[in-house]
From TrEMBL:
Main subcellular location: nucleus
CDD domains attached to this UniProt entry: XRCC3
GO cellular component, one term: Rad51C-XRCC3 complex
Record's keyword terms, sorted: ATP-binding, DNA damage, DNA repair, Nucleotide-binding, Nucleus
Positions of the RecA family profile domain: 14-187
Keyword DNA repair attributed: yes
Protein name as it appears in the record: DNA repair protein XRCC3
Matches recorded under InterPro entries: DNA_recomb/repair_RecA-like, P-loop_NTPase, Rad51_C, RecA_ATP-bd, XRCC3-like_C
MF annotations from Gene Ontology: ATP binding; ATP-dependent DNA damage sensor activity; four-way junction DNA binding
Gene3D superfamilies the record matches: P-loop containing nucleotide triphosphate hydrolases
Compartment(s): Nucleus
Biological process terms in GO annotation: double-strand break repair via synthesis-dependent strand annealing; resolution of mitotic recombination intermediates; t-circle formation; telomere maintenance via recombination
Taxonomic lineage from the root: Eukaryota, Viridiplantae, Streptophyta, Embryophyta, Tracheophyta
Length: 287
């Protein structure tokens, strides 16, 4: 048994979980996104974190027998414009499984700042039971703090205080109403090379050939229960290694830390109908 296994504790057996819409990804997360906790998805732009967020908004409406929550969702977005076109495209693949238009059970609210989010959260006492909301997605939390605070000790302390206010309120409502709370976060480049650099309980990450780490630093890492990291790798395909036109993008998702899961990862692909885990047949043969 490893030391970290002594600290890991399973979720209560009765904790509902939300499917990601893919059995392979659900297996990676031990059944899906758990309710009563805060799950963070970290990735650079264009990797798929918003795609996965939209997919969760639709999956939440599925019945429990299909891994859903039979409920509506609230999508709070600070990244503009809102990706309605992609959401509508994904919703077409859920219509056959639902007795209603999937878009009718997704409620959208733009966010302009961290203070705006704090002002909005108390309204959940009224909105959640009235609209039968079981999933809240904030996309993205990093954008709320962009340019809001200066790089001074006083401002950094004020920013950390804001982190804990937001996370404590989200955790309170997740327990009060049994919500699944999903946040997306951005990455920043790691400027210095150091094997001792650690964010949360993980070293720096690599994505698109760059060393990156989750935005907002260590204070924010302590505010979430589960952190997932999505990254991209570019590789040449075929025999013509001199041609830069023969490139393909591979995408991966990893459990960085979670109280109930081991550090593990898998590859995924983005298709018209959604985001799905993927296993290379050649990799299976080598294993």
């Amino acid at each position: 048994m490893r030391p970290e296994d002594l600290l890991r504790h399973p979720l209560p057996a009765e904790t509902p979980k939300l499917t990601l819409g893919c059995r392979l990804l659900d297996r990676l997360l031990g059944g899906g996104i758990p309710c009563n906790t805060i799950t963070e998805i970290v990735a650079e732009s264009g990797t798929g974190k918003t795609q996965l967020s939209l997919q969760l908004l639709l999956a939440a409406q599925l019945p429990a027998s299909r891994g859903g929550l039979s409920a509506s969702s609230l999508y709070l977005h600070s990244e503009f414009p809102f990706p309605f076109r992609r959401l509508h495209q994904l919703s077409l693949f859920y219509k056959a499984d639902l007795p209603h238009d999937p878009l009718e059970r997704i409620f959208v609210q733009p966010l302009h700042s961290a203070d705006h989010l704090l002002d909005l959260l108390p309204r959940l006492d009224f909105l959640v039971p009235k609209l039968n909301i079981k999933l809240i997605v904030i996309d993205s939390v990093a954008a709320l703090f962009r340019g809001e605070f200066e790089n001074t000790p006083l401002e950094l302390k004020r920013r950390s205080s804001m982190f804990f206010k937001i996370s404590s309120k989200l955790r309170f409502y997740s327990h009060k109403f049994g919500l699944a709370v999903v946040l997306t976060n951005q990455v920043v480049d790691v400027m210095q090379s150091s094997d001792n650099l650690r964010i949360g309980n993980s070293a720096f990450f690599c994505s698109s050939g760059r060393r990156v780490c989750a935005a907002l630093g260590l204070s924010w890492a302590n505010c979430v229960n589960t952190r997932l990291f999505m990254w991209r790798e570019e590789e040449r395909v075929g025999e013509d290694y001199e041609s830069f036109e023969r490139m393909q993008t591979r995408r991966f998702i990893r459990v960085v830390f979670a109280p109930h899961l081991p550090d593990s990862s898998c590859e995924f692909v983005i298709r018209r109908e959604g985001l799905f885990g993927w296993i290379d047949d050649n990799e299976l043969k080598r294993k």
